[in-house]
Amino acid sequence: MAVIHFRNIIKRYGKGAKTNQVIHGVSAEVKDGEFVVIVGPSGCGKSTLLRMVAGLEEISSGEISIGDRVVNNVEPAQRDIAMVFQNYALYPHMSCFDNMAYGLRIQGVPKAEIRTRVDKAAKILELSHLLERKPRELSGGQRQRVAMGRAIVREPQVFLFDEPLSNLDAKLRAQTRLEIQKLHRELGITSLFVTHDQVEAMTLAQRIMVMNAGVMDQFGTPEEVYNTPATTFVASFMGSPPMNLLKNAPGVRPGTILGIRPEHLNFSDEGWLVKVEQVEMLGAERLVYARLGEEQLVMRIDESVPVPALGASVRVAADENRLHWFDAGSGKRLADA
Ligand SMILES: Nc1ncnc2c1ncn2[C@@H]1O[C@H](COP(=O)(O)OP(=O)(O)OP(=O)(O)O)[C@@H](O)[C@H]1O
Hints:
By secondary structure, the chain is of the alpha+beta class. It has helices spanning 46-54, 96-107, 111-124, 140-152, 170-187, 198-204, 222-227, 232-237, and strands at 4-13, 20-30, 35-39, 61-66, 69-70, 81-84, 158-162, 190-195, 207-212, 215-220, 244-246, 256-260, 265-281, 285-292, 295-302, 313-318, 324-327.
């Protein structure tokens, strides 16, 4: 296990006039044994950040350390990390056992110890009955578990996960998410997990690093990121449907943006007069889309609350304790009153 330290990390791709800076000075400390999810939209630099920890990408400036060792110039194989990829990267002609054992054989680990370590990992991942099968004889979820098994047997200081669930269907994704959580509880190995899926980030992370165009907008617990987003970007990226961000609503001063989560708006005798434009059924709740002048509001309404007819004019009010204020220019959160 180990602390991972990012010190003012900058990454540029290309040379001379074609230089493209994609990471703009990220500093953060991942605690020993912590599970951190790096999240953000496509192209924000999250894989680049992970690949720099792995040693698969050079660091243009700044320092990354794992434990008490700066690893900028350490070969990937010497970094004591194990990485799990989106596409599993299993050897098709080898059994699951051999896939998991391969790295240990190369390291010259004695045969009996390989057996013990693979059996232990297979037990944790519920793969014991599948060890003699080839990858093609397994489901996607099972293949991903073998890929995780291969990482576990190496007993690394750090696990790196690069979108490992994105090839799985929704049900398997949810199940594998639970397995990864269990794995982390049992092994307690410092983990960095990259995803573009905010639900995955919220459910898996002890802390979430939200990346926005190469900048770390926020690094906090799921509760902090959801309840006190540091920027309008975090506010709209985390949560589905996203937070309402209003510039042109009564009570919003010029130069500021008012953020309200859909679940913090309710029908009320007082409040803004809006026109109901659309209603979406989600089972236990409904999403109501309503027009407020130039703005559209989305509300998340419990199924027990009667929903007005389409086109109806109704009044809605926000929970006053759950308002978020941002600077319209920088997008940054204004000090909470
Ligand atoms: N080898 C490369 N050469 C040049 N530019 C690159 C290279 N790899 C990535 N980039 C650029 O760096 C930026 C960040 O890419 P990165 O893959 O880290 O993003 P990401 O957030 O992981 O996105 P995705 O979810 O799509 O993988 C992108 O603009 C990308 O085009």
